[in-house]
Amino acid sequence: MIALVMAGTAEESELTRQTGVANKSFITPGGKTALAYILEVLREVEEISRIVVVGPPESLQALKGEFDFEIVPEEGSIAKNLSAPLNKGLLEGPFLLVTGDIPLLTRESLEDFLARCKPYELDFYYPIIPREAVEKRYPGTKRTYVPMKEGVFTGGNIFIARAEKVREALPQVEDFFRLRKSFVKMVGKLGPVFILKYITRRLVIADLVKRFKVLFNVEAEAVVTWYPEIGTDLDKVSDLAFFQEQLGS
């Protein structure tokens, strides 16, 4: 399987201002860049045959001596950064998509997710992590949680997607990535029935999967995993302190 790491430069934030690093994938919470931690894991997973990274070429080139991966220059928006490797013919069939800001990712957590998604027959797999798993592993951390009938969940930052379906859904991709950090807004986009179910805590995972199919024209599955490291991203200044504690400053 091909692994695509999205390490493009996003808008300026309080985190990038305080660290003086324009791209959070290159912040060093433990002596190495967030991206380097991810690349270390990807090369350890036997199922990953090739790694493609979208991001700033000069910064990525500095990692080429240590890691074997293909560089795709960033083009701006998430949709453009995703279409770039597609247009170059670097993605085919089901591929692994990883955001460049989850330095706590481990081989065990990634292999568990891949195993839960096999045999990759659907178009899209999205991990959701129970709140109790996050609070047990990382007590005191603040994440965005979604109350559902089956439990309370947060979303992950690794996905499996089918290349041809991603190409078809590119116009909606920007919306998905923008809304994934605010489930209230996402539910609002899903429609009034979903808003009512959300408020009354009658929303079930199957409801989301069905609506996802309508919005994006894909066969999808929400995959429950108990590894919170795949949903713990470097996004805020408070996150940096947490990662420094976990990885060593």
Structural account:
- With 249 residues, the chain is α/β, with parallel strands linked by helices.
- The chain has a single domain (2-243), classed as Spore Coat Polysaccharide Biosynthesis Protein SpsA, Chain A (Alpha-Beta Complex).
- It is built from eleven helices and nine strands.
- It has helices spanning 14-19, 34-44, 57-61, 78-87, 107-117, 131-137, 163-179, 183-190, 192-199, 205-216, 237-247, and strands at residues 2-6, 50-55, 70-73, 94-99, 124-130, 146-148, 151-155, 158-162, 220-224.
- Strands 1, 2, 3, 4, 5, 6, 7, 8 and 9 form a nine-stranded mixed β-sheet that branches.
- Helix 3 (57-61) links the parallel strand 2 (50-55) and strand 3 (70-73).
- The two termini are 33 Å apart.
In short, what is this structure?
By secondary structure, the chain is of the alpha/beta class. 43% of the residues lie in helices and 18% in strands.
Q: SS-based structural class? A: alpha/beta
* Helical stretch tally: 11
Write down the CATH topology. Spore Coat Polysaccharide Biosynthesis Protein SpsA, Chain A
Which of globular, elongated, flat, extended, rod-shaped describes the shape?
A: globular
Number of strands: 9
